[in-house]
Amino acid sequence: MGCISSKRSKQVLSNEDPTLLAAQTPFTVSEVEALYELYKKLSNSIIADGLINKEEFQLALFKDQNHRNIFSDKIFYLFDAKHNGVIEFGEFVRALGVFHPNTPLDDKISFAFRIYDLRQTGFIEREELKEMVVAILHESDLLLSEDFIENIVDKTFSEANAKGDGKIDPHEWKEFVSKYPSVLKNMTLPYLREIALTFPSFVVRMESAIQNN
Asked: Is 33:39 a contact under the CB 8 Å cutoff?
């Protein structure tokens, strides 16, 4: 099994030219190679197949392979560009590139819109916004009354939906997050700026967390 996994892992990188991935993302070739080391750890953390499945993705995000919410499910869906149930190395690098500090703001705004557009209609509806707000509050361990949550959603949706037509379009979303940039704070991971230097220790910590589960 180990031999098969090793061969698959080599194929994953050979099928994705690091130079091409570097040209398509904010990462350098050496950073792409550093990301591959992380990818190998994640993709073999539960099933040694060299591909990141949903349980391994959950484990990486929450240190718990069974932890599920709509936020993590949607992130997995967006990383899994081929929608075949696994995240391949090229998909991993390209999607992670959106979170790089040097990625244009418009790309981050667009990606965040796709996260909130849970039903993939091209708009964010009130119920989708509420689902995301509830998920975020749950992850923050904040217990708020239903009335208070409704007030937050109503106020936010009303301000974002400038046209008042009951759905937030991409232009309205861009205007809203430009006014409230904190909405995008999780769309930038500062350590990706020097990934080749910081990831060796990050991989060790990740491996330790996986082994302890």
From this structure: no
Pick from 82, 106, 81, 95: which is nearest to 25 by CA?
95
In this predicted structure, what is the pLDDT of residue 176?
96
Question: pLDDT tens, 45-93?
Answer: 999 999 999 999 888 876 656 666 677 888 999 999 999 999 999 999 9
The vertex-127 CA angle with 125 and 133, nearest 5°, equals: 105
Residues 141-189 have pLDDT tens digits of 777 899 999 999 999 999 999 999 999 999 999 999 999 998 898 888 7
Q: Is 2-102+189-212's fold the same as 105-187's?
A: yes
Q: With left for phi above 0 and alpha for psi between -120 and 50, is residue 25 left, alpha or beta?
A: beta
Class assignment of domain 105-187? mainly alpha
pLDDT at 125 (0 to 100): 97
Domain ranges of the chain: 2-102+189-212, 105-187
